[in-house]
Automatic annotation (TrEMBL):
Stored SUPFAM superfamilies: Six-hairpin glycosidases
A Pfam family per the record: Glyco_hydro_92N
Location of the Glycosyl hydrolase family domain: 292-755
Keyword Chaperone appears in the UniProt entry: no
Single GO biological process annotation from the record: glycoprotein catabolic process
Domain Glycosyl hydrolase family 92 N-terminal: start-end pairs: 35-286
Listed InterPro entries: 6-hairpin_glycosidase_sf, GH-type_carb-bd, GH92_a_mannosidase_put, GH92_N, Glyco_hydro_92, PNGase
Organism: Dyella soli
Protein name: Glycoside hydrolase family 92 protein
Any one cellular-component term (Gene Ontology): cytosol
Residues making up the signal peptide according to the UniProt record: 1-24
Keywords linked to the UniProt accession: Hydrolase, Signal
GO molecular function: carbohydrate binding; peptide-N4-(N-acetyl-beta-glucosaminyl)asparagine amidase activity
Length: 778
């Protein structure tokens, strides 16, 4: 193996050559050319820069750090733009989550001498990790490349639905190795790896599995790996008991060059000698078994043509991003198409080629007639990301809903997912928000799934008493804070979810269900305190908890990742009722203004990581605030919605690595941007209405699945004309501040005439405002 070296020096000419990708570069002809996956990789965006395809099973990306679980928040996607070294390339990642896990099957190409431990990022040469420069990175939709400065290796990554493809160009004359480490994870909990196995088959295929206790306890993931060139030698090591690379004796005195090992700290080193051409590596994963991983590799990973696979990934992105064409400056195109890209990463495929997947019972099931998807951050994505898919990807929505129903049928508790990935449940966050995902799709005309089974699942989730204080909620009409934390938030979110059940039940002709859940939808009133004007948590005896501080946020308070200023507006199903409770239009808009205009010390939320992107009390970096700017529409002050939206768009999004104000949360932050740029937003999913804001692109053409095109235009659109003067739909004046889903599907043109001054007469009458379950008369 040679001697350990601390660093590598590359002549400028060689570095320049390595930074130029081998093979053909896909033509930049489609909308994918405007995607920059680096957006959100800095700050708290928690996105990853690596290679994937739309909703794909593989997210092949560099990991710059895998810290212990107490410090893992900023590395939830494995990569932080500010880091200067790369640990390796792993095959599974969350995009924008507020919690970390995954980072499975970590691979690192090494030239020269091999170190077996990752090493200290602050001490170059202390382990196998390598320094890198952003100047050497190439980051595109479906492709990532970087030069590892420690080794002089040019690493290129691309992906298919179930297979990750690597191409490593090693410096001439240096021994080439690939290190496979089954120890690291992006949630490095003590004892994280419960067990793993690794074996080399006669044909050179490498397979293995590992079981971890992370965010989803007992998660098992298997893989299969092949190389384009034969190995010259190999080692499989259990580092739990061995500290040297050569001459070790493992558990049970396994031979040094064993074909297989089991244990909790497995590392494989695969040697190839000095190579004359790039080494390609392909890796398939499976949540079920090694045999399925091999089958996935055989099916989805045929041949050795990295450039062809890269071109396929690029085409997959061009195809899905072609659903919207916009006319906008380059920087704005980058923000828009990167947002649309991020919104189309999850939920991810979690099913093998034979239809098998792992369910929440941790057993193996088989999908019939649909692709099973998981990675459901439902507290986030029901608000805008899933409604965006209903609008732009309705065929995929059928697969998503069938996946939710299948997960419920496999659940030991008989309920829909809450926050699930790779089929397993984490129980993170609150609400039963798979319910509005299904209801929104049904109300907007999505069919192709068993609506009766869906309704059964929705009702089961809403009546499962042990979950989150639901038993008391059903008895008292609210979640008592003396029995359940965050009672105000839970009461409000349950009431909205109940409303969405009522809407779908009504549309299905199930009047008894609609009536029962329609009544439950009014439970928001039990959280409203007329004396203080805020939503608050009650105790079992009916009294509000004291003392009350509307500024208090976080676990232990009345609220989930928020405070009274942020949560007191969460009645999307009955904004008119909330306006009436708060004293009418003027009082409502004045209090809403006070949210945005407040002088707030940001250190107030230092203990709540997710509350970011502050404009006064408004926190765009977290989901409970996402609908607030649109609420002025409901109070006859649409011009204020327009002004607030510009304030948010200008301050919370930018086409740079730290360009997201908070966690992208599986595409929700990005979906908000896409909808808002188009000029409308789904304040109340499971309604067929969108609240109209104002567009931020001069022209956007939505090429819909039914063959129609819906176009949004605006003129003059510039900073000097931030307000809507008038709106026409298909040439006719539109006097209301909402748009119906069916009007979009019918095709046509929505045109905005913009002006310098607020248009205070538009959308003032009750009939021009978006619908609510109750009405408020001025």
């Amino acid at each position: 193996m040679g001697k350990i070296r601390a660093s590598a020096w590359l002549p400028a000419a060689l570095l320049a050559a390595l930074c130029t990708s081998a093979g053909a570069v896909p033509a930049k002809s489609g909308n994918a050319a405007d995607v920059d996956p680096r957006i959100g990789t800095g700050g708290d965006g928690h996105t990853f820069p690596g290679a994937t395809v739309p909703f794909g099973m593989i997210q092949l990306s560099p990991d710059t750090a895998m810290p212990d679980f107490k410090h893992a928040y900023k590395w939830a996607a494995g990569y932080q733009y500010g880091d200067s070294s790369i640990l390796g390339f792993s095959h599974t990642h969350f995009s924008g989550s507020g919690h970390s896990d995954l980072g499975d099957v970590l691979v690192m190409p090494i030239a020269g001498d091999v170190r077996l431990e990752p090493g200290d990022p602050a001490k170059p040469g202390s382990g196998y990790r390598s320094g890198f420069s952003h100047d050497s990175e190439r980051v595109e939709a479906g492709y990532y490349a970087v030069t590892l400065s420690e080794y002089g290796v040019r690493a290129e990554l691309t992906a298919g639905r179930r297979v990750g493809w690597h191409r490593y160009t090693y410096p001439a004359g240096k021994p080439a190795h690939v290190l496979l480490d089954l120890r690291p994870s992006i949630y490095d909990y003590p004892g994280k790896v419960l067990w793993s196995n690794l074996r080399v088959h006669e044909d050179g295929t490498i397979t293995g599995c590992r079981q971890t206790r992370g965010w989803a306890p007992g998660r098992e993931l298997c893989f299969a790996m092949r190389f384009s060139q034969p190995m010259t030698s190999r080692q499989i090591l259990n580092r739990e008991t061995n500290v040297s690379y050569k001459g070790f004796k493992g558990p049970g005195n396994q031979a040094e060059d064993s074909d297989a090992q089991q244990g909790r700290a497995l590392v494989g080193v695969f040697d190839f000698g000095a190579l004359k051409k790039p080494l390609e590596v392909k890796v398939a994963i499976s949540p079920v078994s090694e045999a399925n991983a091999v089958a996935n590799l055989d099916s989805d990973g045929k041949g050795w043509d990295f450039d062809a696979r890269r071109a396929e990934a690029r085409k997959a992105w061009d195809d899905v991003l072609s659903v919207v064409d916009i006319d906008a400056p380059k920087a704005q195109r980058t923000s828009f198409y990167t947002s649309l890209y991020h919104a189309m990463l999850s939920p991810t495929l979690s099913m093998d080629v034979n239809g098998e997947y792992r369910g929440p019972d941790n057993n193996v099931h088989r999908a019939e007639g649909f692709d099973f998807h998981s990675t459901w951050s439902l507290w986030d994505v029901y608000r805008a990301q899933q409604p965006l898919m209903v609008l732009l990807q309705p065929d995929r929505s059928v697969h998503f809903i069938k996946s939710l129903i299948a997960a419920r049928e496999a659940s030991p508790f008989g309920i829909l997912p809450v926050w699930a990935y790779q089929g397993l449940e984490t129980w993170c966050m609150i609400g039963y928000h798979a319910v509005p995902v299904i209801a929104d799709a049904y109300i907007k005309g999505i069919r192709g799934f068993d609506a009766d089974a869906a309704m059964k699942a929705m009702v089961a989730s809403a009546t499962y008493a042990p979950y989150g204080g639901l038993g008391d909620y059903m008895k008292l009409g609210y979640v008592p804070i003396d029995k359940e934390p965050e009672g105000a938030s839970k009461t409000l979110e349950y009431a909205y979810d109940d409303w969405s059940i009522a809407q779908m039940a009504k549309a299905m002709g199930k009047d008894d269900v609609a009536q029962a859940f329609g009544k439950r939808a009014t439970n928001w009133r039990n959280a409203y305190d007329e004396k203080t004007g805020f939503m608050r948590a009650r105790k079992t005896d009916g009294s509000f908890r004291e003392p009350f501080d509307p500024d208090a946020a976080g676990y232990g308070s009345d609220y989930t990742e928020g405070n009274a200023w942020q949560y007191s507006w969460y009645v999307p199903q009955d904004v008119a009722g909330l306006i009436g409770a708060m004293g009418g239009d003027q009082a409502f808009t004045a209090k809403l203004d006070s949210v945005f205009d407040a002088k707030v010390d940001k250190s107030h939320f230092a203990h709540v990581e997710d509350i970011t992107g502050l404009i006064g009390w408004y926190a765009h970096g977290n989901e409970p605030s996402h609908h607030l700017a649109y609420l002025y529409d409901y109070a006859g002050a649409a011009w204020k919605t327009q002004a607030r939206l510009k304030q948010i768009m200008d301050s919370q999004y930018a086409p740079r690595p730290d360009g997201l104000a908070g966690n992208d949360d599986l595409g929700q932050m990005s979906a908000w941007y896409v909808f808002t740029a188009l000029g409308f937003y789904p304040v109340t999913p499971a309604s067929d209405e969108y609240a109209i804001g104002r567009p931020f692109v001069k022209r956007a053409a939505l090429h819909l699945a039914n063959g129609k095109t819906f176009t949004v235009t605006a003129a003059p659109l510039d900073d000097a004309h931030p307000y809507v003067g008038s709106v026409t739909l298909n040439g006719k004046p539109l006097d209301r501040v909402f748009l119906r889903h069916g009007e979009i599907l019918a095709g046509g043109e929505l045109h905005f005439t913009m002006q310098a001054q607020p248009g205070k007469a538009w959308g003032v009458s009750e009939g021009s405002r978006p619908a609510s379950t109750s009405s408020y008369k001025r």
